[in-house]
Amino acid sequence: MTIRQAFARFWPLTRGDRRWYVLVCVCVIAAAVCETVAILLFGHLTDHALEQGSLAAFWHPATAWLGVAILGAIIGYLGNSLAFWSGERFVRRLRAHVFGHVQELPPDFFQRHRRGDLVERLSGDVEAIEQLVVSSAIGVVSAVFRIVLFSAAAIWLCWDLALVTFALAPLLWLAAKIFTGPIRRFARSERVADGAITSVLEESLGTIELTQAYNRKPAEETRLDREAGAWMRASVSGARRSELYEQVVEVLETLCVLGVIGLGVWEISQGRMTLGALLSFAAFLGYLYPPLRSLGELNLTATAATAATERLAEILSAAPSVTDPEHPVELEHVRGRVEFDRVGFHYPGAGTPALTGFDLTVEPGEFVVLTGPSGVGKSTIAKLLLRFYDPTSGQVRLDGVPLSSFAVRRLRESITLLPQQTLVLRDTIRANVAYGRPDATDEEVVEAARSAAADEFITTLPEGYDTVLDPSMLSGGQLKRLTFARALLRDTPVLVLDEPTAGLDAASAHQIITPLRALARNRTTILITHDLSLAQYADRVVALSGTGSGSDAPRVGGRLLSAAREL
Ligand SMILES: Nc1ncnc2c1ncn2[C@@H]1O[C@H](COP(=O)(O)OP(=O)(O)OP(=O)(O)O)[C@@H](O)[C@H]1O
């Protein structure tokens, strides 16, 4: 991606803030004008006060110089503060934009990308793009204006000396051009290595018990060291190139200063120039080189930022797997009839289908246990019902209407999923229970917790419902009951539970039976499990065969009495 493409990709996000950038540019220009006036006053002071030794000639230009310096300082302060503020605003907006997009992406996207790398893209890469889109853009305007202003003043003072100075500019550009390619390469490697380091740290800290129990400390350290080595090589090589560039520029500048002084001495000896004019000219040179140099450096910064741009653009180009229809069907009074009609599904990029020709109808209020061998597609059925994906063939319907006819948000308001993993937040117990219904009253939260048999252990915690949850302070069964309370509070007509007893010992699994039945009461419930002891509570058991199609297990009086035997 070129700088121009990278800039064009993210510039539209600055809409609404551009007036602030214009104001920053105005401040930068005003500050440069103040500097120019100050330098001219310095020349005047040299010729009229210093050379003549006249104190009377000192006061007037000195007062004016001080006034201009104070004005320049105020404008500089306002401009720089505003530039910083608007840059950070852009970072915030860009991060929110990418984060909003990431939240709509399907589960397989998160399986393909390491979480640490995504975190790095949302933090470091976002800031690098700010450098390109806001700071560099303002920097270019500022540098160009200063160059024009100081050049005009230098030409006005002494045009032949100015020509010597300008002869150097193409050399500076050439140097920047030579160094751009390698610096960009190293910047890209550094960004990738940053992501890899965050991933290793995140994975390693997440599995710390496994690491300790299996004595894998040295292996984990080697893993981090490998990524850190790649990062260090890229970082040091990039810094070396940048430093070399700086030094080359220094030498070029010295060359030019010597040329100017030599020529200036000759001009003074010929009586064509005063000492004040030469000193002013040298001061303009001092002011002219930083913006000239910063143009080259901005090119390098922007080049380095394109690596970050590519990484964020990759996220933004990943499309959500489902979208809302143009005219969504309104969902009111959902009864909860769920139908899978000849459903086939292929995960993006997978070689074999996860489901083929799957049929299942669950009547409103029915409690169905879904079982079958591992990998047969049970969790996939839950994902299709929540519309994380649309089926590749066939249809999933709710109350007879295809799921794709509903707005995704509204559909998910009617279905509650309890995923296999017990997901809790580091927040209060109250906030955890009310996660699916933040507007619930305290009474409703307590009521849900009571029905889920969670109230009994919550009230023994030091601060009851206000205790900030640390998952290690509760048992697996208690955490599960907490998520049941969360689901109860949502009170949706359809409920999907994915392996609620997975990871629980027999005693904990037994503890969740009563809350589970409370949860399933009066709503369409699909319970995915390998644990056939749960089958006795269901109206029906559906066993998925290896081909992915469903078959109803025999029922006795509407209730399966010995599920294990029948299956
Ligand atoms: N994101 C994915 N990309 C590609 N293939 C996938 C993805 N997720 C699941 N699969 C595959 O789809 C098939 C069905 O997976 P699914 O998780 O639905 O099975 P399951 O019956 O729930 O298994 P288990 O009982 O072990 O949880 C499996 O072969 C699995 O490897």
Task: Describe the structure in your own words.
One of its GO terms (cellular component) is plasma membrane. It comes from Kribbella kalugense. Keywords: ATP-binding, Membrane, Nucleotide-binding, Transmembrane, Transmembrane helix. The protein is α/β, with parallel strands linked by helices. The chain has two domains: 3-317, ABC transporter type 1, transmembrane domain (ABC transporter transmembrane region fold, Up-down Bundle), CATH 1.20.1560; 338-566, Rossmann fold. The chain has 19 helices and ten strands. The strands form two sheets. It has a six-stranded mixed β-sheet with strand order 6-7-8-3-9-10, with helices on both faces. Strands 2-1-4-5 form a four-stranded antiparallel β-sheet, with helices on one face. Helix 2 runs antiparallel to helix 3 and helix 5 runs antiparallel to helix 7. It is elongated and about 110 Å long. Mean pLDDT is 84; it is low at 547-567. The structure holds adenosine-5'-triphosphate (ATP). Adenosine-5'-triphosphate binds next to helix 4 and helix 11.
List the helices and strands and how they pair.
Elements: H1 3-10, H2 18-50, H3 56-102, H4 107-112, H5 115-157, H6 159-166, H7 169-206, H8 208-213, H9 217-269, H10 275-317, E1 338-345, E2 355-362, E3 367-371, H11 378-385, E4 393-398, E5 401-402, H12 408-414, E6 415-418, H13 429-433, H14 442-451, H15 455-458, H16 476-490, E7 494-498, H17 506-511, H18 513-520, E8 524-528, E9 540-544, E10 550-552, H19 563-566
Parallel strand pairs: 3-8, 3-9, 6-7, 7-8
Antiparallel strand pairs: 1-2, 1-4, 4-5, 9-10
The chain binds adenosine-5'-triphosphate.
Residues 108, 111, 347, 350, 354, 374-380 line the site of adenosine-5'-triphosphate.
Protein name: ATP-binding cassette subfamily B protein
Keywords: ATP-binding, Membrane, Nucleotide-binding, Transmembrane, Transmembrane helix
Domain ABC transporter: 338-566
